[in-house]
Amino acid sequence: MEGGGNRLLPADAFPLFQEGIGLVLSRWSALQLAVDNEWGGRDSRRKVELLCSDIFTWFTQNKETLYIDDLEMILDETMLSLNTQVDDGSIEEVAEKLIFMHEECVDGNFSSIGRLRQSPLPRGAHSHVSQAMSDEEEEEEEDDDDDDGDVGNGSDGMRNDMMVDAIQQQPRAVNQQPRPEASAPAEDGWVQVTSRRSSRGTRN
Known about the structure:
Layout: H1 14-26, H2 29-36, H3 44-61, H4 68-81, E1 84-86, H5 90-106, H6 111-118, E2 129-131, H7 135-149, H8 154-168, H9 196-200
Antiparallel strand pairs: 1-2
């Protein structure tokens, strides 16, 4: 999808456009959840400040045609740096809002920025946002669950079966086969799930 083309933003619109970028990102609940919880570390807020700067530079210094896919990649890379997994299409939505706002500002129209100023900040957790665990954290969680399984009582066995079934029902685990109820558990008790980084693929 093509974005704003090579139409340049007037210099006198720079401050308002910068403000608009900040307003859009401050109302992206997935991003704010990651910052508030410092999923990307103590410098999570600094990473968002750098994102604002990168977006502004991308729009104002790019002399060639702007493509929304490239903007989505910038947003996606920041979310990955914040160890945040987003599965609700909000990256595409935020990119579209930024493209639209840039087009308005090029034409001297700042109405969308005015509306953002009046709109409330997001509240509460986002059901489609989760913290991405590192490999070490995943291994630690596996070890903890393996220890629980050694107890051998009926309730623990049922809980482990439910956890495996829940993972198998996730849409990304398309290659997993259901385990027969009477069969023995897998050797390590876990099912491998494709990571979000590989699922998005490489953008052109």
